[in-house]
Amino acid sequence: MAGEPQADCLFCKIVAGNIPATVVRETDTTVAFRDINPQAPTHVLVIPKVHYPDAASLAAAEPGIAADVLTEAGRVAVDEGLADHAYRLVFNTGARAGQVVFHAHAHVLGGRGFEWPPG
């Protein structure tokens, strides 16, 4: 069922505390933790505690929680010292776009320059 924890979801297991993560922020609706395969000096994932497969489905079903993810991404950037400089927020949607874990999540990337368009 949409929004419910999924037994086979890595991020649902992190939310439940069954898999360790380096948590940098947590709210009632979100968890932010360091990516285990960072693509920049700062690479933090911000996830909703509810399970939706991607950002679009999260936003359609629970726009308030989608807003919480964005708000927390901004707070992560401040906490990581990125807010006065530059950072990138990325939502990959679908395997062809690079999504590996099918639980909505934002990547907060910073600490280096980024090209556009991304490759």
What do you see in this structure?
With 119 residues, the protein is an alpha+beta fold. It has a domain at 1-60 and 68-85: HIT-like (HIT family, subunit A, 2-Layer Sandwich), CATH 3.30.428. Helix content is 26%, strand content 21%. A five-stranded antiparallel sheet has the order 1-2-3-5-4, with helices on one face. The longest helix is centred in the middle third of the chain and has 17 residues, at 63-79. It is globular, with a radius of gyration of 14 Å. The mean pLDDT is 95.
Please tag this protein with its features.
single chain; 119 residues; alpha+beta; HIT family, subunit A; five-stranded antiparallel sheet; 3 helices; 5 strands; globular
Describe how the helices and strands are arranged.
Layout: H1 10-16, E1 23-26, E2 30-34, E3 42-48, H2 55-61, H3 63-79, E4 87-90, E5 106-110
Antiparallel strand pairs: 1-2, 2-3, 3-5, 4-5
Low-confidence stretches: none
CATH-level-2 architecture of the domain at 1-60 and 68-85: 2-Layer Sandwich
Shape: globular
Please give the alpha-carbon distance between the first and last residues. Answer: 35 Å
Task: Provide the spatial order of strands within the biggest beta sheet.
Answer: 1-2-3-5-4
CATH superfamily grouping of the domain at 1-60 and 68-85: HIT-like
